[in-house]
Amino acid sequence: MNNLTHRIAVEYEKPSAFNSCSTEQAWASVPSEPNAVEREELISKIKAQLIEKNAVLVSHYYVHPDLQDLAEATGGLVSDSLEMARFGRDHPAQTLVVAGVRFMGESAKILSPEKRVLVPEMDANCSLDLGCPAEEFTQFCDEHPDRTVVVYANTSAAVKARADWMVTSSIALKVVAHLKEQGKKILWAPDRHLGSYIQRETGADMLMWQGACIVHDEFKAIELDALKKQYPQAKVLVHPESPASVVKLADAVGSTSAILKAARDMKADTFIVATDNGMMHKLRQQNPDKTFIEAPTAGQSATCKSCAHCPWMAMNDLRNVLKVLEQAGTGYNEIQIDEHIRARAKLPIDRMLDFAQQVGITSKPNVDSAITQGLGPA
């Protein structure tokens, strides 16, 4: 089967424990699209392998539509990273194939240590994860021992292991408000835009690690405002990893699940969406009579690094899903985490889940969708 790929350089910000920031470079590979015949062959073989290997496929909203559709067609799930991990934990399959980026595979392994967790592409990274190395982050935490450490889900197992709390983009507001009521000062990592949004909304004392998502950081307020003028009836949906100037223009702000809910519930026919354009597939599936327009990442005020799609999410395709299934049991692309780190990383996740239950947030369909209103509108 033809599997032509080419490599691209991806720049991302790498903050340090001393609040300095450098620009680093990583790589992503771009797989070619299969033709119609190959595509059907791949899908058929993957379905057979999932059954043979007692495996289930979970896919993030940002990966290729083929993988989203295949996950749902085979009894898997399309969702955010935490719900992917929880679904895998609760599913009877003993092998989990996690189509997303590497930290998502780690999250699944943290919750399911007894299961085999596979990722289609081990080099599929995340700028938030890459920009928050565990050693430097630990130094940052050690320099501020009076602060409660709250980290976003988009971090490595080692960073989670240093945290007191892990949060998703939706429950973060409630958790930080709760900590503020207790008189806690917070050390937040890694996304500075999400952290600043939470700080503005809660008034909490927050010290920020200065990371950013290369996708959401590129949305531009000047260009978005111009687009709004072209579509004056459109509602603007924004992920809170975006810059404050973009969030300010939003009609609703929230996580992936919150954006889906807003699109379903808001009385509008047209939406401008500021998040990874992988979301467009699910948005259009669920709302076939509505129009969804990508928020701009380029224009007179910008240079486009990601063009609204994570280059590492794009590394997942049918070919490498099939390959990792065929090699299941050999160690190929299998997530391994030191048990001490895994057990310690599970504590902040459990703390968040226990808090969610205490405040009446149900686990279905997931944490994010239950508290959409907590994040927006801006």
Helix and strand topology:
Elements: E1 5-15, E2 21-31, H1 36-52, E3 55-60, H2 65-73, E4 77-79, H3 81-90, E5 95-99, H4 102-111, E6 116-118, H5 127-130, H6 134-142, E7 148-152, H7 157-161, E8 165-167, H8 172-181, E9 186-189, H9 192-202, E10 206-208, H10 221-230, E11 235-238, H11 244-247, E12 252-253, H12 256-265, E13 270-274, H13 279-286, E14 291-294, H14 318-326, H15 339-358, H16 367-370
Parallel strand pairs: 3-4, 3-5, 5-6, 7-8, 7-9, 9-10, 11-12, 11-13, 13-14
Antiparallel strand pairs: 1-2
Helix pairs in contact: 1-14, 3-4, 8-9, 12-13
Short description:
By secondary structure, the chain is α/β, with parallel strands linked by helices. 40% of the residues lie in helices and 18% in strands.
What would you say the CATH architecture of the largest domain is?
A: 3-Layer(aba) Sandwich
Order of helices and strands: EEHEHEHEHEHHEHEHEHEHEHEHEHEHHH
Mean pLDDT: 90
Sheet having the most strands:
4 strands, parallel
- The CATH topology of the largest domain turns out to be Rossmann fold
Q: Which class of secondary structure composition applies to the elements?
A: alpha/beta
Tally the beta strands. 14
Give the tally of structural domains. 3
